[in-house]
Amino acid sequence: MTERTYNIAILGATGAVGTRLMSQLEESTIPVNSLKLLASARSAGKKLTFKGQELTVEEATPDSFNGIDLVLASGGGSVSQRFAPEAVKRGAVVVDNSSFWRMNDNVPLVVPEVNEADLKGHNGIIANPNCSTTQMVVALEPVRRAFGLRRVIVSTYQAASGAGQSAWEELVAQTNAHNAGEKMVANILPVKGADKHYPLAYNLLPQIDVFEDDGYTHEEWKMIHETKKIMFGDKNSKSVKVTGTAVRVPVPVGHGETVYFETAPNTGATAAGIQEALSQAPGVILEDNPKEQIYPQPLNAEGKRETFVGRVRPDLENDDSFHMWVVSDNLLKGAAWNTVQIAERLVDLDLVRVPVGAASKF
């Protein structure tokens, strides 16, 4: 029997995540028949290399998806809003890295280590979660399975690249300017369209995305509701309480998170038991030896697909409660690798097909 091969398109191919989608696809198990690179008119004509073959980036149009089986999208929310339904109409399955489809009830929000089974009910679009949510649920899922999960309080330390290539470049420029005794220029962070911008170099910004009316940022809102949808199947689930604070830090790549969590009572949860569960979990690397000063660091996580966990310890003031430190490459597991990993599972499970009538849901 001849192995099926796939015609694949990458939407948003020239961005920080898009270029990593190419490299992750190149290293994946997906049998690629052809690859089409799509972006805005501004980027059309650029040359990129895939498996030794030079490809020309094309301007994305609805007809770009004719004959495509699988779309890996990282072009931003408005781009995915416009083009994902067009791709589905033409028979392509879309794995989308933007925030636009994540809370749609017709779209599964998937981290393969946590809720791969949700892929079986897809309607042609699968959403990739927020980068900070992804690494946290990878670390929490082994705990939930072994000891239950009642409450999560997270504080994030998120890298500049989480706001895009331009924010990363601005951090470098600000650092160079500060070191040269020059004025730091800020045009992007904390939010590109905001009235005020602040430098990230030598600074911390306790705002990621816009503020909601309740005082939480939209990034914090996303972490709360995405966690509930991924782990409990309902973005408003009452099965777990989740809250957090998201902070941008002057690190190029790699998000860090301090996670406080409460397990179910009478489950016998201990720090050693949680470490054992984490050490056996897919996609997790336990780095936890305080005596030898071994713990996860963004610098070491960069370029790696795994989620790194350390500093696992009990909360000394609250029963059944623990802390851990979680680090991952936000451009890989937080974005490009999780997207390609979803695509791999779709291929392995023979789910690269759009169900009849699915296009009408979008």
From TrEMBL:
Keywords for this protein: Amino-acid biosynthesis, Diaminopimelate biosynthesis, Lysine biosynthesis, Methionine biosynthesis, NADP, Oxidoreductase, Threonine biosynthesis
Binding site for phosphate: 102
InterPro entries: Asp_semialdehyde_DH, Asp_semialdehyde_DH_beta, NAD(P)-bd_dom_sf, Semialdehyde_DH_NAD-bd, Semialdhyde_DH_dimer_dom
Binding-site residues, substrate: 158, 248
EC category: oxidoreductase
GO molecular function: aspartate-semialdehyde dehydrogenase activity
Pathway(s) served: Amino-acid biosynthesis; L-threonine biosynthesis; L-threonine from L-aspartate: step 2/5; Amino-acid biosynthesis; L-lysine biosynthesis via DAP pathway; (S)-tetrahydrodipicolinate from L-aspartate: step 2/4; Amino-acid biosynthesis; L-methionine biosynthesis via de novo pathway; L-homoserine from L-aspartate: step 2/3
Active site location: 131, 255
Residue ranges of every copy of the Semialdehyde dehydrogenase NAD-binding domain listed in the record: 7-122
Listed Pfam families: Semialdhyde_dh, Semialdhyde_dhC
Reactions catalysed: L-aspartate 4-semialdehyde + phosphate + NADP(+) = 4-phospho-L-aspartate + NADPH + H(+)
EC number(s) stated in the UniProt entry for this protein: 1.2.1.11
Residues annotated to bind NADP(+): 14-17, 42-43, 161-162, 330
Signal peptide location: none
Function comment: Catalyzes the NADPH-dependent formation of L-aspartate-semialdehyde (L-ASA) by the reductive dephosphorylation of L-aspartyl-4-phosphate.
Self-association and partners: Homodimer.
UniProt-listed HAMAP family: ASADH
Family recorded in the similarity comment: Belongs to the aspartate-semialdehyde dehydrogenase family.
The protein's name: Aspartate-semialdehyde dehydrogenase
Gene for this chain: asd
